[in-house]
Amino acid sequence: MVKKHKRRSPGMSVQIGKIGMENPVMVASGTYEYNEVTKELIDIKQFGAIVTKTITLRPREGNPLPRTCETYAGLLNAIGLQNKGLNAFLIESIPSLKKLRIPIIVSISGDTAGEFKELAGNLAEREEVAGIELNLSCPNLTNKRLFAQNADATYDVVCQVREMTDKTIIAKLTPNVTNISEIARSAERAGADAISLVNTFFGMAIDIKKREPKLGNVTGGLSGPAIKPIALRMVWDVSKKVKIPIIGMGGIMSGEDAIEFIIAGASAVAVGTGSFINPNLGIEIIRDIKKYLSKNNINGMKQLTGSLAERS
Amino acid sequence: MIQAKVKILSNIKAGPNYYRMTLACPAAAKKIKPGQFFQVRCGNKSLDPFLRRPFSVHNVDKKGNIEILYQTIGKATVLLSDKKSGDALDIIGPLGNGFEQRTANSERRTSIIVAGGMGVAPMLFLAERLVHRRQTTDHRKVIVLIGAKNKKNLLCEKEFRSLGCDVKISTDDGSKGKKGFVTDALKGLLNANRYTLNATLYACGPSPMLEEIAKIAAANKIESYGSFEEHMACGMGNCYGCVVKTKKGYKRICKDGPVFDLGEIEW
């Protein structure tokens, strides 16, 4: 009898550093937690990979209220990386994430390059961790400058983490810069395996009755479809300047949005805020990309990535 | 828990800017606990309003219909009020930890419900469940203290009375019931009736009201539970946007709450 093999979706798989993913759709850091609610609403095992909420060496309480504010086609947030810290993460979260049998990418952040290095050192020993995403770009911390707003600081952090681990390293960059390609190249030179583009845009909202900021942290990060065209342009820009793969994100609300990012140069995409409104978004995007590939006779994601044509 | 498009059976004005909407939701109705809520997409596919809005369950009937009671306070709720019976509504739920899960050992006590303003919304469903238990296990009493701005904005008095609850009204301007805050009525009740000192307090309303109730409960050594409200982004515990400060740090209202032991809150 001929043994039946599970047929992989034609051409959906992608390679990000050492991570082989069944399909190019991931969850964006900070927008998904595996818990008893989300496991009923989101079939996370179908995703290409999962990126955890950002963890820090020590627990972080997070920012004062209010932490979120809805804007036109967008969401401002200033959560402040509330998390239980590295040790509790390793003990409490890793075992349940491991059971999902999809690649786990752990997002980390620190106040210094040394903290990134220490976190990476701890994660390097864990076989359950497929990769590390460096959150060089959280807009809601006390440091006025983000690592990813400076090419040298980005280089330094990536280098120090690279020394600690052979695991896939992804640098997540901020769009709040003059020249994002310069920062991305710096991360590439330092040894990053991939670039995540983009984190949120600095923004704010004001309550005119009270003349107060609507966020407890005064400013926050803007996500959602309001930022999509800018994020898309940045992915396109960076893809022409680096050789390592790009994970595109920023306001993806549909399969069409995701495919735009891929055509612009992204090897994979991540959904975040959009899944708050439609928990099934990621699954719909996987289905839509599959349809698009077969309808257009495209044999693999590599053929689609960066396939933007000149206007005829 | 489900994500589904359910049918709106009715959407009726229940007072100035207040509406009562009934949804056919047999798939989820049986499992709903008082205090739980649904995340509702008020604007269909539009991006404004962008996020879902949380609504607590106001009532559940035997046919598997659920009711929500809401006030039109912004774009999303105005859009919701425009919906007609027969329309579909995209909902996720039931979400959160309700009242019953938190009060497993208190069946035999007097229950005091304190509802301020829109805070009545989840409390009618709670009262119905408490009264039902009372009929089956006896010896308990359900007292309902409702606070409203004025007579016009007073909600659900009739519904609580028809359940057989002992209802006491307070209004800010004295146009109905006693003039003053609902928390003053609570103090008066506890001072006048010794048996109430062994009661369990259930509260829903504005944060200052919950804070005052926590103080009263602490002073009288009474168990107290409150349902919190905050802007929510995801409603599923993903984003840590809607939090309340507790003695053990910030907890998520959508996932760890919305009902908390008021003694655990850091005000």
UniProtKB/TrEMBL annotation, chain A:
Cited PROSITE patterns: DHODEHASE_1, DHODEHASE_2
Keywords of the record: Cytoplasm, Flavoprotein, FMN, Oxidoreductase, Pyrimidine biosynthesis
Recorded GO CC terms: cytoplasm
Primary localization class, coarse: cytoplasm
Needed co-factor(s): FMN
BP term (GO), one: 'de novo' UMP biosynthetic process
PANTHER family assigned to the protein according to its UniProt record, in alphabetical order: DIHYDROOROTATE DEHYDROGENASE (FUMARATE) (PTHR48109:SF1), DIHYDROOROTATE DEHYDROGENASE (QUINONE), MITOCHONDRIAL-RELATED (PTHR48109)
Name of the featured protein: Dihydroorotate dehydrogenase
Source organism (scientific name): Candidatus Aquitaenariimonas noxiae
Gene name per UniProt: pyrD
Automatic annotation (TrEMBL), chain B:
GO molecular function: 2 iron, 2 sulfur cluster binding; electron transfer activity; flavin adenine dinucleotide binding; metal ion binding; oxidoreductase activity
Lineage, uppermost ranks: Bacteria, Pseudomonadati, Candidatus Omnitrophota, Candidatus Aquitaenariimonas
Residue sites binding [2Fe-2S] cluster per the record: C234, C239, C242, C254
Recorded metabolic or biological pathway in which this protein acts: Pyrimidine metabolism; UMP biosynthesis via de novo pathway; orotate from (S)-dihydroorotate (NAD(+) route): step 1/1
Organism the protein comes from: Candidatus Aquitaenariimonas noxiae
UniProt binding sites for FAD: R53, P54, F55, S56, L69, Y70, Q71
InterPro entries per UniProt: Cyt_c3_hydrogenase_gsu (IPR012165), Dihydroorotate_DH_ele_sf (IPR037117), Dihydroorotate_DH_Fe-S-bd (IPR019480), Dihydroorotate_DHASE_ETsu (IPR023455), FAD-bd_FR_type (IPR017927), FNR_nucleotide-bd (IPR039261), OxRdtase_FAD/NAD-bd (IPR001433), PyrK_electron_transfer (IPR050353)
Annotated cofactor note: Binds 1 [2Fe-2S] cluster per subunit. Binds 1 FAD per subunit.
Complex and partners: Heterotetramer of 2 PyrK and 2 PyrD type B subunits.
Cofactor: [2Fe-2S] cluster; FAD
Keyword presence, Electron transport: yes
Domain FAD-binding FR-type: 1-101
Stated role: Responsible for channeling the electrons from the oxidation of dihydroorotate from the FMN redox center in the PyrD type B subunit to the ultimate electron acceptor NAD(+).
Family from the record: Belongs to the PyrK family.
Pfam name, any one: NAD_binding_1
Listed name of the protein: Dihydroorotate dehydrogenase B (NAD(+)), electron transfer subunit
